[in-house]
Amino acid sequence: MHRVLRYGPLLVWMVFISFASTSEFSSLNTSKVLRPFMLWLMPNLTELQLGNIHLVIRKLGHFAEYGLLAYLASRAFVTSSFAFIRRHWFLLGLMLVLIYSLLDEFHQSFVPSRTGSIYDSVIDVVGGLTVLLVFASLDRRAAEIARNPEVVRSSG
Description:
single chain; mainly alpha; 81% helix
């Protein structure tokens, strides 16, 4: 049961990422939702501005999507019952983000309404790496506090 709770959310998110790589989340389909919302918020936007905002939102989506993947991987790996996985959680998390991102873009290259892009993989990896670095920093801080409770009193 512990493994299901540990790895289940990670696997569910990976399935969602794969679903998001289908035509359902193509630029054309996301614009059908985002365009009316953006025009409702800012009715004076030009078509060029709408296109640019849509592009930025989609790229931020890549960043966030793989940031969450990295978080869920970290959460699973640092609590693993296998010492190797616990010890190398950062590298394994980064490898998962990198490999899954490349596979995701490769898959998209076969979807008619999508394109595979190495630039999107770079955004994905940067999103994942950012979260891994934050997680590592928090993990280091927690270990430091566990070793020396005086750190909490002096920083406070």
